[in-house]
Design goal:
Blueprint: E1 2-5, H1 17-26, E2 38-41, E3 49-52, H2 61-65, E4 71-73, E5 79-81, H3 91-95, E6 102-103, E7 109-110, E8 128-131, E9 136-138
Antiparallel strand pairs: 1-8, 2-3, 4-5, 6-7, 8-9
Length: 147
């Protein structure tokens, strides 16, 4: 199983390239409101940024909170969302302990599915896709010795 991690957020400049890549490539929309990863300031420009993604919870509270079964547990942690079953009640977002279920203006949920498609779009190599079984990272733009 692979999960998205953000081990080098001190490099983040808040460009939101990862969010736009997620929205466009995964959710087929070009809006920050439809991204599964969000970048937010951790207290102002001088204090840096943080990536808000799903934690790959096991068990996931949003799965238990969903009244229609639109959310199901992913093997090894995280969730799979069947949007055709979603009634847009927002219970998933209320149950998320890290506020990583994002609702657009129509209350459609968007979550990080740990696909890693955003990783190559980060110009400062802040993100990586980690294989949980092996502990090895994939993707990214890092060059040996770059900082």
């Amino acid at each position: 199983m692979k999960i998205l991690t953000a081990p080098r957020m001190e490099r983040c400049i808040g460009c939101h390239s990862c969010s736009l890549a997620c929205a466009r490539l995964v959710h087929k929309n070009l809006s920050w409101d439809t991204a599964g990863i969000r970048i937010s300031s951790s207290g102002g420009l001088s204090t840096g940024f943080e990536a808000r993604t799903r934690l790959a919870c096991l068990p996931a509270p949003c799965v238990e909170a969903c009244p229609t079964g639109a959310y199901s547990q992913r093997k090894g942690g995280g969730v799979v969302v069947k949007k055709s079953l979603c009634i847009r009640c927002g219970e998933c977002a209320k149950a998320c302990p890290v506020d990583a279920v994002f609702l657009d203006e129509t209350r459609e949920p968007f979550v990080c599915i740990h696909c890693g498609r955003c990783v190559s779009f980060c110009p400062h190599d802040c993100l990586e896709l980690m294989d949980v079984e092996t502990g090895r990272a994939e993707g990214g733009n890092a060059r040996e010795g770059a900082s």
